[in-house]
Amino acid sequence: MAQKSIQWFPGHMAKTRRMIKECLSEVDLVLELLDARIPYSSKNPEIENMIGDKPHITVLTKASLADPDINRLWVKELERCGKTAVLIDSQSGQGLSELKDAIARTLADKISRYNEKGMSGRAIKAMIVGIPNVGKSSLINKLAGSRRAKVEDRPGVTVDKQWVTTDIGITLLDMPGVLWPKFEDETVGENLALTGAIKDKILDTEELAMILCQRLMGIARDKFLSRYKLTEDVADGLDGYDLFELVARRRGLLMSGGIINSARCADMLLDEFRGAVIGRISLELPSDRVE
Questions:
Q1: How far apart are CA 173 and CA 6, in angstroms?
Q2: Which among 158, 154, 160 has a CA at the least distance from the CA of 137?
Q3: Beta bridge partners of 35
Q4: Bridge partners of 60?
Q5: C-alpha dist (Å) from residue 164 to 90, 126, 153, 246
Q6: Cα–chain center distance at 247
Q7: Please, what is the Cα angle at 232 between 237 and 259, to 5 degrees?
Q8: Which of 136, 178, 217, 289 is deepest in the core (most CB within 10 A)?
């Protein structure tokens, strides 16, 4: 049961694509942020063409929400493909020192030339790009040591570029989140919707939560059953709709007449998945998607 044609491409995203190209000459490198739970689905296929041969680091954000073993597999896969990859959790600060080191390695030649010209200490300028709600503002605020960028757990908060100075010798150019006009793969649209990269208000969240139930039974069965106090003999073989209804009844999310409150159940399921209340869950394995 798949939700059809999940798409979201408001006008400001077309503007962002133009800004990225126009501002490339102002920066030394690009930090491309991907959601660690969905590295393939959260990778805008247009970004690498936009940035060309500009030095580029892949930053896997929200690492504490994703399965730690699968996180390591993704880093190995990206490195196997010749990319520099760093796992980050902006809440705890995990990976920030590794990111600083990766930037220094990536720009070692340029930094050496600056030093030879007596420009030691010149701030490195980095552009931050990624899909909506991938954690750009959270990372910027952590690096800056204060709340410099607006942070909300919803997509589309940053709508214009902004420069932010940090205390680690890096000046960051924050770009608004940008998707691409059409998701060719239906699962990509689902993954973006499930992780909150697409605004819930344009989606059928009840159907999305049913998709989530079915997906979790496949990839995080024990965590899903444990969280909602379900047993295998009852849950096995059920489709997304029946699992969704079973969860609602287990949680007592009912209206008069014993009808399930599907809106409350959908909100609860999506919130608990996105906040890792169900557990640290990755929706994609490197073996699922090989570039």
A1: 29
A2: 158
A3: 61
A4: 34, 87
A5: 16, 10, 20, 48
A6: 26
A7: 70
A8: 136
Structure confidence at residue 12 as a pLDDT band (50, 70, 90): low
Judged against a pLDDT cut of 60, whether residue 1 lies above it is answered with no
pLDDT at 56: 94
> Sheet of 29-35: strands edge to edge?
84-87, 56-61, 29-35, 124-130, 170-174, 162-165
Smallest CA-to-CA distance from 135 within 73, 88, 200, 85 is with 88
Q: Residues with Cβ < 8 Å from 151, sequence gap 6 or more? A: 137, 138, 141, 157
d(CA 95, CA 245) in angstroms, rounded, equals 40
C-alpha to C-alpha distance for 143 and 172, rounded to whole angstroms: 9
Residue 3 scores a pLDDT above 50: no
Amino acid letter for position 27? V
Integer Cα distance of 224 and 231 in angstroms = 10
Count of CB atoms situated within 10 Å of the CB of 77: 19
177 closest CA partner among 146, 204, 150: 150
Helix locations, 161-204, DSSP H: 186-194
| Residue range 34-53: mean pLDDT, rounded | 90
Give the separation between CA 43 and CA 61, rounded to whole angstroms.
Answer: 12
Would residue 263 be called left, alpha or beta, if left means φ above 0 and alpha means ψ between -120 and 50 degrees?
alpha
Inter-residue contact 265 to 231 (CB < 8 Å): no
Q: Look up the pTM and report it.
A: 0.86
Task: Give the dihedral sign, CA 284/265/152/175.
Answer: positive
Q: Tell me, what's the pLDDT at 168? A: 77
Please state, in angstroms and rounded to a whole number, the distance separating the CA atoms of residues 200 and 80: 35
pLDDT, residue 146, reads 64
Q: What is the pLDDT of residues 87-137, one digit of tens each?
A: 999 888 899 999 999 999 999 988 888 777 776 667 789 999 988 889 988
61, with CB counted inside 10 A (0-12, 13-18, 19+), is buried
